[in-house]
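> tool_call: predict_assembly(chains=two)
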Amino acid sequence: MSSSLHEEMLQIARQAKLASRALALLTTPEKNLCLEAMASALLENAAKIKEANARDMVAATQAGLSTAMLDRLRLDDKRIENMARALGEVEQLPDPVGRILDERVRPNGLRLQKIATPIGVVVIIYESRPNVTADAASLCFKSGNATILRGGREALYSNSVISTVMVAAARAALPKFPEHAIQVVQTTDRDAIRELLSLTLYVDLCMPRGGEGLIRAVTDCSKVPVIKHYKGVCHVYVDCAADLEMASRIVMNAKVQRPAVCNAMETLLVHEAVAGKFLPGVAALLAASKVAIHADSAATAILQPSFAGTLSPASEQDWSTEYNDYEMNVKVVSGLREAADHINNYGSGHSDAIITGDDASAKKFLAEVDSAAVYWNASTRFTDGGEFGMGAEIGISTDKIGARGPMGLEELTTYKWMGFGDGQIRS
Amino acid sequence: MSSSLHEEMLQIARQAKLASRALALLTTPEKNLCLEAMASALLENAAKIKEANARDMVAATQAGLSTAMLDRLRLDDKRIENMARALGEVEQLPDPVGRILDERVRPNGLRLQKIATPIGVVVIIYESRPNVTADAASLCFKSGNATILRGGREALYSNSVISTVMVAAARAALPKFPEHAIQVVQTTDRDAIRELLSLTLYVDLCMPRGGEGLIRAVTDCSKVPVIKHYKGVCHVYVDCAADLEMASRIVMNAKVQRPAVCNAMETLLVHEAVAGKFLPGVAALLAASKVAIHADSAATAILQPSFAGTLSPASEQDWSTEYNDYEMNVKVVSGLREAADHINNYGSGHSDAIITGDDASAKKFLAEVDSAAVYWNASTRFTDGGEFGMGAEIGISTDKIGARGPMGLEELTTYKWMGFGDGQIRS
């Protein structure tokens, strides 16, 4: 690792730490003033942003990026307007800093308050979409954190201009806005991430967003805490006491409404007592939506006679695969015990649902399945900051230390204990 | 790394994960029944425990351990009674699992509950005191976690017997108590920790307790989240608006009441406007308690004429030193700004106090000092699970992701989101 790269990352991280101290002291109106100015500035500087984006697009086209990747990278007026609107939405959200999370007065009169505070310096690592730059930076800023952004190399010009425009606008609106509150890593050196994430004295948290490969690489090299989800292998378990019509609606929604997202269902588990009655109907609906099915032998035996779609045997590996596509697994289970074990063994701890009319079974499932979000008679698709009423979301966590599940502004804070005394000493 | 070591750690971790699933489902009365049985069994098996401890003591004496280390290692009837009593206290504490941390009903009728759950598998790494085995295991158990204990090699027989006695008692009282709920790592291979802390699929958290060297070594090699504090470099800042009599009492308490603990004061910062008036008196009291002082030049100039104790110039390194002894630093600062900067730069983010009669200064200090616990007119010595009303404490965290400050039972839990629907799908 070159020492100049080390120096470069050290400077970014130190600057961010100093900025974070100033950010922690901004009032809610001051932060909102900045967000409003940032949103306006994105619109006013749309031409400049599109120009930088065009430069990225030319290089990406030459580099042979796929059409899908190029589409993600592209910024047009509509997308810039959406970025600005998202900043306006963050402005409207309640400030998560300063919430009193707990309060107690001790017998000696010492009053203790547990107060929500910013985390400090947050590193966001992401792939091609440049709108993440504005979204992530605005959420981190509203929660009082300094942000270090490391986007895909193909989006470097776009990301840099977006961040520069936001910082300049905030400083014009509020002179004490610290200039290093939002920084984009300028080097495309692959070692930059490892270097940055070794600086535990300055960096408090890393949140990688993107494919499993990226996230594993980040987690493997990081010395600072990482909050992430590798993938979303979500399940719906249709119990023997399920309302099968409801089950069918939920299964279709969980799989088909938006298959490419992490909270979409990948595996359907069906109680053996209702499999014969339930599976042929729901499978026909799935086939009509062009969903290919990988099935265990019991499900295959039920489906084979009538199924018109693509059916293949599920392999061991299929059970832990996130298809992100019109493709899924089906398994017949002997009951709740097997369903919960299957989910705990093959799932990703993301979002899993039980469909049942039986209270006791539902409670057992909710208790036993060790996932960030567990649902009773609802679609897995609800695991989302917006759907949870958090406003914008910066990501979803399947970790257990720090935030779990959707992460909004509150999940971008930590806390400190404040003790108010009148001379108390310990005896 | 030997593959047999890998296999051994893998087996322990897998067993712990399976046990954790069963533990998560135990009711509060079931857990309390086990804790009561464990406490009784420690008393009933005192002879057996002392026998194992004697074996450890012989080996430790032969290995040339210091008198202080030998004293930590020693178990006698009194210490075994204390262990049993501590288990009884954990039994009395409220169960942290199942608390409803948040609840909301969405416009579509979906009810969401954020529920406290066990973390899963917790590894505790510690040094010589065998009582930590019972303390840590009981706190992890009450919070529904499986524990893997790795104590000092010198205490292996003692730790093993304590854990065996506890598990056997719990199983006799509650047959479904999972036998791998509490495990002691039997190998003394140094690589065991690295191996164990690479098993991210099974281990959810590591909490090292002990000296800074141990904690840094664990943190450096761990792939699982670590919650810890490296050291406690705590400050008291005596403001220009301080009640100097109160300041003197708090400084004495923070330094002298128990200097060897992490929440004891290491550095006294004094506002220049009151330094001349305050320092000679408090320094005389400190000198009477045999406290050696490392002072900056301004403090030295004030103290030199009259000070009867040990006075030397403070080096750059002294400002970040945890003396854990009758030794401390004194610095004169120009005001709150310099005090807060000094604390944020040289402190350990543990516990820091301001003594002042001025509201605005106090609030500024509490906001700006980025530490787990910040005090206004109270001693730093209060950072402690017992003093915070948490009951027993498993450690203190200066981290920001996960628990911060004293860690009791609630801090040994995470949460999951439960969604209660009646057929909701996402549109």
